[in-house]
Design brief:
The complex is a heterodimer of chains A (299) and B (262). With 299 residues, chain A is of the alpha/beta class. In chain A, strand 5 and strand 6 form a beta hairpin. In chain A, helix 4 crosses helix 5 and helix 8 packs across helix 9. An 8-stranded parallel barrel of chain A has the order 1-2-3-4-7-8-9-12. In chain A, strands 5-6 form a two-stranded antiparallel sheet. Helix content of chain A is 44%, strand content 17%. By secondary structure, chain B is mainly alpha-helical. Chain B has 2 domains: 105 residues, no CATH class; 137 residues, no CATH class. Chain B has 12 helices and 3 strands, in the order H-H-H-H-H-H-H-E-H-E-E-H-H-H-H. In chain B, strands 1-2-3 form a 3-stranded antiparallel sheet, with helices on both faces. In chain B, strand 2 and strand 3 form a beta hairpin. The longest helix of chain B has 19 residues. The mean pLDDT of chain B is 93. Chains A and B meet through helix 2, helix 3, strand 5, strand 6 and helix 4 of A and helix 1, helix 2 and helix 6 of B.
């Protein structure tokens, strides 16, 4: 399976998430961003929201980033929701399509959150089956995003990156690397994000997300990072982004902002900052890869 | 180790428990157990925000604290089954009416129904409407036998309370409109999408009767006869033209393609 587009169709400058609050401003001002991303769940009706998306699509590349299909659900995925997804893909012709390494539905109830899985062989089989159904229905390669997590299951049998790597190998899916999620999970669960980056399969990261998070002190005094997409990108996340680009090369990147949504120009400024980091990293990346190639030859 | 269906069922129960801190067997499966409450918070807060987006006037009428309380109870009792949250909350009006605390606001349920209708027409699927020119030249008996369907972007509502006035008094800062007199009594409303906005307009009693009869499947002639019997001031020509222009009725494909309707 392929991305369904050629390299020159992929945006080279950073995009932003389009939310209802910015519909008017985006179609009026046409801000200088490389592309737009939306949650398909918000555009599965008709009327002004869908029309705004159609209008924006005429001006920008658009990607569809699902939050509700619940690919990790043992009970399978909702065929009606998948049908509406496929319909939206047909009408919008997105440049990229993605969903999450998580689940949201149990017993037919939608919990409206992206809940982590135990990384077991059983969960891998479940996720594989659901993801294959999605890719078949959309006739697209789907990018799967690493989740932010507050807890980890003791009975996991592999690391998250191994789980993602297996999915890539078995289904041909790609990876959406959310650098903020990686930072949040690494801090909350106590693992090394750089080890995660090193372990990602080569050439399979098709998109990067950047977002803000909140630090909260729990009753026991411990600090937990909450992935609320409600702030500018934090400095350690920018550093990790630079490290990710050094490891991966250029990857289409976008800024997510979902709570306490600011004026559009703040998002545009964050996208510009991402471009600057990508620009500064380019030279390093070339040096890094040629060094790796040298190592490979030596080995 | 429990299988994935059990893990997910346990997680769902923890998230949807009436109080935080109920981890059950799930507590043995995760590290940092107390952080499970973050998931419960996320679910309750984000679904509460979705309800507040759909029911802002209910929020103004009952205040933030009571709205949060009612929303939480509703989310636990009637959680969403689908991820499109603009479709979540159809049962909230009935739920509010069933809460004893809401008894002092007898119109609250109908205000919630009005807000649900306004939300539903804005996000309704786009469907072609029946245009007056589709009906030009139809023989009288064909016209009379027509059955019509409403477009998804048009709804109607009746209430024993002046809910349109209450709703308007709770827009903006609400200072421009005086107090609403509940004795102004009942209102029949047509709610529809005009351009990008939801709009409401009052229907005469006969018009409301006509519209519900048509929506119930009665042919145009019968619906007009019943409406005129109910309300002697009802004039089918005027009202039908007004509803057609709104637009309220869905296109009849056989008419728009010029095929004769049997």
């Amino acid at each position: 399976m392929s991305l369904g587009l050629t390299g020159d169709q992929l945006p080279t400058s950073a995009g932003i998430g389009m939310r209802f609050q910015h519909h008017q401003a985006i179609v009026r001002e046409l801000p200088a961003v490389g592309w737009l991303e939306v949650h398909p769940e918000n555009y599965m009706g008709g009327g002004p929201h869908f029309r705004a998306l159609e209008t924006a699509r005429r001006e920008y590349p658009v990607s569809l980033h699902g939050v509700g299909l619940s690919l990790g659900s043992a009970e399978g995925i909702d065929p009606e929701h998948l049908r509406r997804w496929a319909d939206l893909v047909r009408r919008i012709d997105p440049i990229l399509v993605s969903e999450h390494l998580s689940w949201s539905i149990s017993g037919g109830i939608y919990l409206n959150d992206l809940i982590p899985l135990p990384y077991t062989k059983e969960a891998l089989a479940v996720f594989r089956r659901n993801l294959e159904r999605m890719q078949e229905a959309l006739k697209r390669q789907v990018l799967i995003e690493n989740p932010s997590a507050y807890v980890a299951f003791r009975h996991s049998e592999m690391a998250e990156w191994e789980f993602l790597g297996e999915l890539v190998r078995m289904t041909g899916c790609g990876i959406l690397l959310d650098v903020n999620n990686l930072h949040v999970s690494a801090a909350n669960l106590g693992f090394d994000p750089h080890q995660y980056l090193t372990a990602l399969p080569d050439g399979m990261v098709g998109e990067i997300h950047l977002a803000g998070h909140t630090k909260r002190r729990l009753d026991d005094g411990s600090i937990v990072l909450i992935d609320d997409h409600g702030d500018v990108v934090d400095d350690p996340v920018w550093d990790l982004y630079a490290a990710a680009l050094t490891r991966l090369g250029p990857v289409p990147t976008m800024i997510e902002w979902d709570s306490r949504i600011p004026p559009l120009d703040i998002l545009v400024a964050e996208a510009r900052k991402a471009n600057a980091v990508a620009q500064a990293t380019k030279a390093n990346a070339v040096a890094f890869r040629s060094r790796e190639a040298n190592h490979a030859r030596v080995a | 180790m429990p299988a994935l269906p059990e893990v997910q069922a346990m997680f769902g129960e923890t998230v949807r428990s009436p109080v935080p801190g109920r981890y059950g067997l799930l507590g043995d499966l995760v590290d940092r157990i107390e952080r499970l409450d973050i998931y419960r918070n996320n679910t309750l807060i984000t679904l509460g925000e979705a309800l507040r987006t759909t029911f802002p006037v209910v929020g103004r009428l009952v205040g933030d604290d009571f709205f949060d309380f009612a929303a939480r109870r509703f989310i636990l009792a009637c959680p969403p089954q689908r991820p499109c949250l603009f479709e979540y909350g159809v049962a909230f009006p009935d739920f509010l009416e069933g809460m004893p605390e809401c008894a002092p606001l007898p119109y609250l349920g109908d205000i919630a129904r009005l807000e649900w209708a306004l939300n539903a027409v804005v996000t309704a699927p786009d469907e072609p409407a029946l245009s007056p020119h589709h009906l030009v030249g139809l023989p009288e008996d064909t016209l009379s036998a027509l059955t019509l369907r409403l477009v998804p972007s048009a709804r109607y509502l009746t209430s024993p309370f002046p809910i349109d006035a209450i709703w308007r008094a709770n827009q903006g800062d609400g200072t421009e409109i005086g107090a609403v007199d509940l004795k102004d009594g009942e209102v029949d409303l047509l709610i529809l999408r005009l351009g990008d906005e939801a709009a409401m307009t009052e229907l005469a009693p006969g018009e409301y009767h006509f519209l519900t009869a048509l929506d119930g499947g009665l042919p145009l002639g019968t619906a007009a006869f019943e409406a005129a019997t109910f309300d002697s001031t009802f004039d089918v020509g005027t009202s039908f033209a007004r509803l057609l222009a709104a637009p309220v009725f869905a296109e009849i494909p056989a008419l728009s393609t010029g095929v004769t309707v049997p």
